[in-house]
Amino acid sequence: MMQSQSQSQSQSASASASESQSQTQSQTQTQTQTQTQTQIQVEHETLYTYQTDVELAHHLAYLRPLTSDWQRVLSSKVEIHPTPSNQSESKDAFGNVRSFFTLDTPHTKLIVRSLSTVALRDRYAKFDMATAPEWEDVREALSYALDRAYLPASEFAFPSPYVPRLKELRDYALESFTPRRSIALASQDLCTRIHRDFKYASGATEVHTPILEAFTNRAGVCQDFSHILIGCLRALGLSAQYVSGYLLTKPLPGQIKLRGADASHAWVAVYCPTAPGYWLELDPTNDVVAGPGHVRLAIGRDFGDVSPLRGVIRGGGEHVLKIAVTAEEIEQPAG
Q1: Helix intervals (H) in the chain
Q2: Is the pTM of this model over 0.85?
Q3: Average pLDDT of 179-207?
Q4: Among the four 183, 251, 288, 314, which has the fewest Cβ within 10 Å?
Q5: Domain 38-120+311-329 maps to which CATH number in 3.30.750.200, 1.10.10.10, 2.60.40.2250, 1.10.3720.10?
């Protein structure tokens, strides 16, 4: 009998704006060379314990961080036990690094451990949200027109398996997206409202809980908060990406950081032509703009595109899943 597995998470407005985007990218590339960087090491361990032998397993993992002008991958490795009989890596349609592996040796445990170190810079430190284009102009640029050049960001304006287009989300979003408002300011306001109006509650939802149920109950986890923000933006004709990753957390004064006590995280990137990299990343769970503590793992339309680990197995019976994540800042020598 074959069964599926999926690991949950607790991932130019006009032709003239294209020229502006090139100038913005050039400026931000220069800025990143002089900004202070934060180095973060992330260890992510997944343990599956099965009731009976798994005879055959095929798995897909998204556990290697993305590389960009603001996130430099210093090292990254993925260890798998038992050793796969076949393993390969490639990039998907969104540029994420994905790992395929097959296990054809009977096993009752599967351990997948990734260890990565990245150097991050604050890409939005000098970004002025008030100067971003009006959201209606961005929506118009993303819409189809016979004589208009294809805009790659428009791929993220459509509904996706976890994020259907819903009138309820559109109505909720319009309170923030008043006429002629900056897309950055409107998106930030919507992010703040979701953080204020929704309760973060582990166990309130499951990985496959419909977005409308989480929206109606006003409760969920980072995956739900992100899907709701994405759904609101897309309902207005805007483009939004689901970002999978990790968040650097620090213990309270006088306390020590517990290894394995962190978790995977998720936030949202909204298409904003004048933002560094053309996308403004917002974290509705914490009501912040993504900063040098947000480690980007993968981007997609929704969680389904970037689940850290999933697969199909034969056998195994019932299973128990344990996940341990530790994100730590690496102190750099002075001077």
Answers
A1: 15-32, 135-142, 167-174, 183-197, 211-217, 222-235, 303-306
A2: yes
A3: 96
A4: 251
A5: 2.60.40.2250
